[in-house]
Request: fold
Amino acid sequence: MSKGSSILLAIVMAIGGFSLGHVVGSRSATVAEGGDAEEAQAADVAVAGDVERFKIPVTDAQPSKGPKDALVTIVEFSEFQCPFCARVLPTTKQVIDTYGDKVRIVWRNNPLGFHPNAAPAAAVAMEAYAQGGNDKFWEVHDVLFANQKALGREQLEGYAKAAGLDVEKVKKALDDGTHAKAIQGDQAIATQVGARGTPYFFVNGRTLRGAQPFAAFQKVIDEEIATAEGLLKAGVTKAQMYATVTKDGLTKAADAKPKPAAAKPGQPDPKAVYKVPLKGNEPQKGADDALVTIVEISDFECPFCGRVEPTIKQVQDKYGKDVRVVWMNNPLPFHKNAKPAANAALEAHAQKGDKGFWAMHEKMFANQKTLTTDNLEKWAKELGLNMAKFKKALADDKYGKTIQEQQALASSLGARGTPAFFINGRNLRGAQPLPAFTAVIDEELAKAKALVAKGTPRAEVYAKTIATGETGPKTAPAAAAPDANKIYDIAVPKKAPTKGAKNAKVVIQEFSDFQCPFCSRVNPTVAQVMKEYGDKVQIVWRDYPLPFHKDAQPAAQAGREVFAQKGDKAFWAYHDLLFQNQKTLSRENLEKFAEQVGGIDMKAFKAALDSGKHKAAVEADMAAVAKAGARIGTPSFFINGKLLQGAQPYPAFKAAIDAALK
Reply:
């Protein structure tokens, strides 16, 4: 193969991560094969806790540092030309130095398309691994990062020679694309699990994005070591550890992973007010004198940004003139169409005002996957824009400076991802559900009304509220450990699915999610509780669908409709069907399972799901937890008001129930 062909191959490899994701689909297991068997099989043991994990394959085909039976496996998706990847190297070294044999790091390649030398460098590193194993890989790895601004073909061959590699084999690997399949396989997995930027880490399957400081790694690693040590006591061998903790992990990042704002040490302080100044020329929806201003920092190509838009509409419908939404742009670098889309929207705003902007905004979010220049022009024409001006705005990056200023503001406040919201200056990150917004809005609305009552004009409320706000990220202080004996005041709804005696001495409110694997795992334990305690115990079902489980909310609403039509017996039968099939909770299957229960009016059932008839009730369950001051994952149980979290074993339930009976 010629050098020209080699360069073409490198380009193909460099963009592979973006194209292969659509080709590979859900074939994560196939991607991982490549002739190298995965490590030890997972043990049949429950993993405590409810954190989102991904199942990232680890085989002998990947370079690694640390023992195979380490308690914590960190899979690093990285590339040699990325400055952030270089910046995190001292941190990963500190991780190894601090934790020793308890941690291993597994390397996977993700050369980004806009770094032309990243793919050839990855090929040289993988050839080093082929010739000399882990030791030679990490030696070359260090050299490449030390010279990441000089990764041309001749330089790569020079580094290989200095490292004692067979240079002819290195040249052949570059020319023939010997390692292209392996690198593209890594990129395909990265795309599947949402790791589109670099560096990107999965710590026992838990995501950690970017060049994070050591403290961020330390927090997750310490938690994972504690989990692993518990599994060791349960009989899991070290060799089985990684397979066991990730066995129920996701293989796709189709689901959003927003997290509610909570006062966690090291995390953004949800009470902090940030100074988010407005120039007055930003697109907005709502009155200038609204009491609550929501600055939305978003990206037209971001799926999570698209997902939250219906929630923003709900907010505006609910609060009317008291809320306005102000738009700012943060097109992320790995969304290639996001910046042209931002320019298109701002040009629509320049020509047609707020009405033009929001019309273009709606068209682009409705067609996020097809934000091509042709389509942008098509929609501009449909909106009656001056096409000569529109095309020139896109060609000249007319609003590039404005966009850059807004991105810099977001970054300075710690809001680097999208979507991010500042509600009268208070930061809410991610595609959060409506209750997360209303909780903050209600607090800020009360403060704003108090200001108005004291003489502040409505139009000056926002400026006064943020005047002394934070100008940089503010994290929450360390929180005290929760009181294990606290009794939470969570009233039992008059209409909720129940199981057991109505006058039972112990009422267990189970907050659960039909798509959560831990919720499924605890069901036999709940059955054992009912068998052992009989009429002494009543189970009350409460819905708590997590936002990153896309089928959980529809399933919760479907369960409520079955209950509304046919009562407890039908609900629990439907409940069992959903958990038995929790990986296939499509709309079609929700209907099929309802038919299997029998006696369900399917026309009414479908209408309930179409209209979201029970959505408010589901959200009321979630809001009840927040109102009581509890912070939970799923499953969580309130046993006569005392919280028991997670898929705990039967003895934990027995101890809590016996204490309640006393």
Remarks:
- Confidence is low (pLDDT under 50) at residues 1-36, 255-266.
- The longest strand covers residues 72-78.
